[in-house]
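Weekly sync, protein design subgroup
Attendees: M.S., D.O., the rotation student, P.L. (late)

Item 1: inverse folding check
M.S. brought a backbone from last month's batch and wanted to see whether the design step gives back something sensible before we order anything. D.O. pointed out we never logged the input encoding, so this time it goes straight into the notes. Structure tokens as presented (248 positions):
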């Protein structure tokens, strides 16, 4: 199986080298790494060009993070698709190998694992661990969700459910997982291991105002799959990081 990894970047020179390095060191051999850049003004492009493993690098203006992800989805040729942000890294060099093994089961459509929030300037200093736990579709009703950077999907699933909804500014990843796992009821497998390290410092929970905005978007995500969320769905859901440049 080929695993396609999409990385979206914008002025990511300070962090993208770590992302590129972690993918270049993966033990799994059949990887397609696609980078969609929002026409960065720093030296992101020159850093990307240092890594021969990158299959495709596109740098052009876009309509935001999820528009860029949709561009990446349209370019992938792999059987499995993962999305790793330009300030995140895989926890070790066996992550994609573990993912591939899980997908050997033909009845599994999605695979996910755990995630660690780490300090922005020290990837080895863990701030919080997000333990996703075993999959149960109804857990979505009680605030559960898998961490999106540690979420891998068969390409055929995206072909059926469609692209990210770009009308959502911060919850399009959440809505996509709702669509795949809750609405369409695709099967998922849990890898009980930390797959991704994410730099802390997101803004979605930096203030009550930002948290309210995020909850409002999450409510819209449920509406898009034609179901009304209840209180626990919105207020017990694990905290998510929203990249700074998404906030208007």
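Designed sequence read out in the meeting:
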């Amino acid at each position: 199986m080929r695993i396609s990894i999409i990385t979206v970047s914008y002025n990511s020179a300070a962090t993208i080298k770590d992302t590129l390095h972690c993918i270049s060191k993966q033990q799994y051999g059949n990887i397609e790494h696609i980078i969609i850049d929002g026409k960065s003004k720093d030296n992101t492009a020159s850093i990307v060009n240092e890594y021969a493993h990158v299959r495709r690098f596109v740098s052009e203006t876009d309509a935001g993070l999820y528009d860029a992800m949709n561009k990446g989805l349209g370019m992938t040729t792999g059987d499995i698709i993962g999305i790793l942000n330009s300030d995140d890294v895989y926890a070790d060099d066996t992550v994609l190998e573990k993912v591939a093994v899980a997908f050997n089961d033909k009845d599994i459509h999605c695979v996910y694992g755990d995630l660690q929030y780490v300090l922005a300037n020290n990837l080895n200093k863990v701030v919080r661990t997000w333990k996703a736990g075993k999959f149960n579709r109804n857990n979505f009703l009680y605030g559960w969700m898998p961490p999106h950077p540690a979420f891998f999907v068969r390409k055929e699933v995206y072909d059926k459910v469609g692209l990210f909804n770009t009308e959502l500014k911060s919850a399009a990843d959440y809505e996509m997982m709702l669509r795949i796992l809750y609405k369409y009821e695709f099967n998922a497998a849990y890898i009980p291991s930390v797959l991704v390290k994410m730099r802390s410092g997101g803004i979605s929970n930096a203030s009550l105002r930002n948290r309210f905005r995020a909850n409002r978007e999450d409510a819209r995500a449920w509406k898009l799959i034609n179901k009304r969320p209840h209180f626990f769905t919105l207020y017990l859901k694990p905290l998510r990081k929203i990249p700074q440049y998404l906030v208007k």
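Discussion: Helices lie at 16-24, 44-48, 65-75, 95-102, 155-161, 172-183, 208-224, 231-235. The first helix runs from residue 16 to 24.
Action: P.L. to compare against the previous round before Friday.
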